[in-house]
């Protein structure tokens, strides 16, 4: 199954209709804080402070919502996070 199909499967129809989708970033033991922060700044247009706060939350809680909006707008951003080696999904 492709990454794109996995993202599509995780989206509920009601979320598609009302625009309440979120990109959730998950903790892993592979990526550095700097890589996560730089990727969030580049892909999600976070400020350095936002990206750092998300990285800390992911590290200590296991996950963090990094972007909210319409599924079709979030889809390419989530794919970019995945391509950068991060663990993320749209819910």
From TrEMBL:
Residues 22-83 form the Adaptor protein ClpS core domain. This is ATP-dependent Clp protease adaptor protein ClpS. Keywords: Hydrolase, Protease. GO terms for biological process: protein catabolic process; proteolysis. It holds the Pfam family ClpS. It comes from Myroides profundi. InterPro entries: ClpS_core, Ribosomal_bL12_C/ClpS-like. The lineage of its organism: Bacteria, Pseudomonadati, Bacteroidota, Flavobacteriia, Flavobacteriales. GO terms for molecular function: peptidase activity.
């Amino acid at each position: 199954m492709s990454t794109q199909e996995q993202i599509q499967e995780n989206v509920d129809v009601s979320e598609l209709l009302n625009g309440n989708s979120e990109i959730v970033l998950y903790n892993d033991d592979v990526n550095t804080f700097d890589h996560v922060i730089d990727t969030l700044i580049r892909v999600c247009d976070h400020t350095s402070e936002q990206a750092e706060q998300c990285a800390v939350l992911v590290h200590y809680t296991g996950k963090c919502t990094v972007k909210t909006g319409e599924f079709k707008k979030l889809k390419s951003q989530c794919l970019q996070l995945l391509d950068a080696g991060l663990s993320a999904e749209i819910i």
